[in-house]
């Protein structure tokens, strides 16, 4: 019994490590799209622009580095987020599988409802533990500089120094207090439905295909893309509200999720909830697709490494 529990614990950690590694790789590949979508979500309606115009404006004003603002905090955030999520998801799934065996069920594979419950538990734990990281990341991604305008810097003008992750965190704590780190936590908890939908679709399609053939990284890539496309398209308005709340303390007084939604509807209409959806959906789909493809490979490598270490021991 003890050895079985230890083996399951080890497997949970292997999934968590591979998920964190896959998240880092996929985030690094798609980060400029995150910058573009996040800025589109929080900027005023007067600053609307097309995708290429937004890229040109950022590069002109901040250089290529502007597209990677907050990358260090994002990589740290995604590694922690995915580690926590996959650990809790696998832990919950193992519990359901054990219950299925004890109940004498023909298959221990998770049902759709069980997949959704596992996703809800893992997602909620992840949000509560990692929200501060994403608040800091959003502040860095959407930072405003003194005297910044939509125009390019004048020739010979030296750009202000870009704040570091630690500097942004300390400034936030000093100016707004620790509670600011949990801005947007309510819509973030609502957004737990995003990974629930994503992973439920992925797992159920994977279960169907596994009966016919082996799931390759390419198949995992496509399944991950499909799941994320569906999930992000449905939950995008909440993603916008969460981003607005992350920067609320910087741009003015804080407001509740309901008030934020009312204000967006009043000032910008329904379209305000979908600002930046193009790059966001593209980024989310690609990130999820790369994540699932990388995760499977990294998981296999982690298991092989663990076996080699066990043999040597």
UniProtKB/TrEMBL annotation:
Keywords: Membrane, Mitochondrion, Mitochondrion inner membrane, Peroxisome, Repeat, Transmembrane, Transmembrane helix, Transport
An example molecular function term from Gene Ontology annotations: NAD transmembrane transporter activity
Solcar repeat segments: 10-95, 110-208, 215-301
Principal subcellular localisation of the protein: membrane
Chain segments annotated as transmembrane: 13-36, 66-88, 116-136, 180-199, 219-239
SUPFAM superfamilies: Mitochondrial carrier (SSF103506)
Location in or out of the cell: Peroxisome membrane
Alphabetized Pfam families for the sequence: Mito_carr
Gene Ontology terms: cellular component: peroxisomal membrane
Membrane topology reported for the UniProt record: Multi-pass membrane protein
Keyword Disulfide bond recorded: no
Family per similarity comment: Belongs to the mitochondrial carrier (TC 2.A.29) family.
UniProt protein name: Peroxisomal membrane PMP47A
Organism: Hyphodiscus hymeniophilus
């Amino acid at each position: 019994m003890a050895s079985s529990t230890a083996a399951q614990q080890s497997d949970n950690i292997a999934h968590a490590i591979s998920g964190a590694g896959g998240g880092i790789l996929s985030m690094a590949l798609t980060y400029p799209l995150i910058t573009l979508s996040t800025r589109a979500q929080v900027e005023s309606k007067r600053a609307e622009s097309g995708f290429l115009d937004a890229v040109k404006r950022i590069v002109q004003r901040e250089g290529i580095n502007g597209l990677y603002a907050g990358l260090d905090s994002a990589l740290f955030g995604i590694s922690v987020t995915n580690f926590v999520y996959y650990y809790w998801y696998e832990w919950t799934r193992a519990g359901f599988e054990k219950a299925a065996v004890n109940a004498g069920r023909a298959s221990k594979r998770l049902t759709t409802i069980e997949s959704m419950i596992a996703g809800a538990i893992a997602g909620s734990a992840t949000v509560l533990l990692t929200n501060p990281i994403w608040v800091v990341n959003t502040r860095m991604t959407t930072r405003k500089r003194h005297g910044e305008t939509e125009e390019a810097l004048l020739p010979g003008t030296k750009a202000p120094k870009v704040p570091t992750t630690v500097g942004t965190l300390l400034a936030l704590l000093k100016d707004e207090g620790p509670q600011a780190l949990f801005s947007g936590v309510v819509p973030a908890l609502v957004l737990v439905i995003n990974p629930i939908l994503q992973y439920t679709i992925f797992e159920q399609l994977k279960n169907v295909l596994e009966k016919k053939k082996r799931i390759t990284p390419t198949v995992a890539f496509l399944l991950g893309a499909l799941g994320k496309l569906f999930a992000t398209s449905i939950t995008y308005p909440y993603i916008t509200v969460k981003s607005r709340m992350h920067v609320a303390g910087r741009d003015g007084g804080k407001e509740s999720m309901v008030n934020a939604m009312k204000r967006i509807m009043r000032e910008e209409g329904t379209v305000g909830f979908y600002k930046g959806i193009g790059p966001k959906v593209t980024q989310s789909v690609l990130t999820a697709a790369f994540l699932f493809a990388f995760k499977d490979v990294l998981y296999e490598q982690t298991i092989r490494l663990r076996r080699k270490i066990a043999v040597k021991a």
